[in-house]
Design brief:
- The protein is of the alpha+beta class and about 90 residues long.
- It folds into two domains: about 45 residues, no CATH class; about 45 residues, N-terminal domain of TfIIb.
- Helices cover about 20% and strands about 20% of the residues.
- It contains one helix and four strands, in the order H-E-E-E-E.
- The protein has a four-stranded antiparallel sheet with strand order 1-2-3-4, with no helix packed on it.
- The protein is elongated and about 65 Å long.
Length: about 90
């Protein structure tokens, strides 16, 4: 990869300075959107939350991590894939 400004080869991450010209390499909009999309995709998929199921003692999962009930205090929908338990946890 080369510097976007001086064209010299560089080995650094985004937002770090080029050692040749001192300019900062910025992400393209496409790179930013692709990274952000993948992050949101992983976060929004159901995943284990580290809480013990009250019925079978298996691990509970957040069913829809991207959704939060606007109750006071806020809550999230949970389920147990082992026994089928469903409920809510405080967010």
């Amino acid at each position: 990869m080369s510097c976007q400004v001086c064209g010299n080869p560089v080995y650094f991450h985004y937002n770090e300075k080029c050692y040749s010209c001192g300019k900062i390499r910025l992400k393209t909009l496409e790179d930013h959107d692709a990274e952000t999309y993948e992050l949101h995709k992983r976060i929004n998929e159901p995943h284990a939350n580290g809480i013990k199921c009250p019925e079978c003692e298996g691990e509970l999962w957040d069913s829809s991590p991207h959704i939060m009930l606007t109750s006071n205090p806020p809550q999230k929908n949970i389920h147990c894939p082992e026994c089928g338990y469903t409920g809510f946890r405080l967010a």
